[in-house]
Amino acid sequence: MDQLKAIHALFTTSGLHRNTYAISKIVSFCATSSSGDVGYATLLFSRLASPNPFIYNTIIKGMAMRRDPYGAIFFFKLMCRDLGADHYALSFVLGAFSESSTAVYGRQMHTHIVKGGYLLHDVYIQISILRMYCDCLCMVDARQVFDEMPQRDVVLWSVVLSGHVRGGDSAAALQMFQEMQVSGVQPDEFTVATMIAACARCGALQQGRWIHEYVINKNQMNLDVVMNTALVDMYAKCGCIEEAVRVFEDMEERNVLSWTAMIGGFAVHGLANYALHCFHRMERSGTVPDDITILALLSACNHAGLGQMGFKIFNSMQTNYGISPKHEHYGCMVDLLCRAGRLYEALDLINSMPMKPLASVWGSLLTASRSHGNIGLAEHAVAALLDLEPEGDGIYVQLSNVYANAQRLGDVARARKTIGNVGIKKTPGCSLIEVEGMVAEFVAGDESHPLSPSVTANQNIVSSGKFDEAVALFLSAV
Prior knowledge:
mainly alpha, two-stranded antiparallel ribbon
């Protein structure tokens, strides 16, 4: 920016500051470059007598890139007043709405676009509206917009599929992927990688294998590093670590994400020595680890109880790899100490964290305090958790269990009474199961599933020990 300001000064002294084209280049750098300064761009904008559409769009795009919806709306309104908005401005301002809190402005912009008749004539604006709703996790709105589109190509399908996955509804993404297959639209590499990630998140191993075979045998896609990495992650999270290793070893190209996926796969399977070996191979290959790689390695040590090795890696992050520990790294080490019963050392580490400890850290200490019967630390952790999450449904339940284990029945009654007085409702548990390639979700207390009566009847029979009768009832329902 210092060099650019010197160039701007030269423009001013030579009279080039009156040249709209020259100034637009400076505005473009300031607004859209990662090393620019959008504040300086707005200052330049304010000195222009009559900004052209390119400068307006550049400023709006810069605001959107920096996730500043209010700035984007301000300059969009100025453009509408002075020149009238074009389709570039509409697409850029929609990109500024990327969080749930900004969805209300996104809906207002959508209404403005419909009234102006832009939606019917510009595919790029259609994609921008879809992406806006998906970024805000408003998937009902996204599906409504998607369903109303007369022509839907692979890009539009991919945007909505990705939104379902990022929103945590992988089962809906898999169902929609089947609809995409029926419609005759062929998926591209991005779509396939998204669906593999969906299978990984909900444990849909059969569908993941089908997609793998589809890519190899039917679609004739090249398994690039992105798809191979997604497959490694999917197989590892679905419990097939051998298949994950097979895909990993067959990869012609690996990047830091590939190595991290494999290390993380070994970690979740409790294979810490394999994870450490894989990490050493990664170093020998010349690939530089990032903070996620180190977190996966610490997780492996955590699951295997390798406290000494975990602290060795944690303490060498900055010196060996230039990586400053983040909250997740501290959280992993706190959990490691808690699993080892070193509760007061865990508390000391929490108190020494350079950032504010979040609920995940205090939750680890609370769970460990309950397991070891340390009421004092449990109460301390509960106080910290209530400060962070006043309506946390599991906090008082955990505390009442701690009191119950210590036979402090009066404190148990007080904790449970507090739950009723505050009006806290426990979040219902849920589970996912894959049957013949279809993923079904069951929520505690929810009887909306068509086979709920049969499931409940089977559960009652199994609980009573009559397994043969349960099998017969299940087969008759199917």
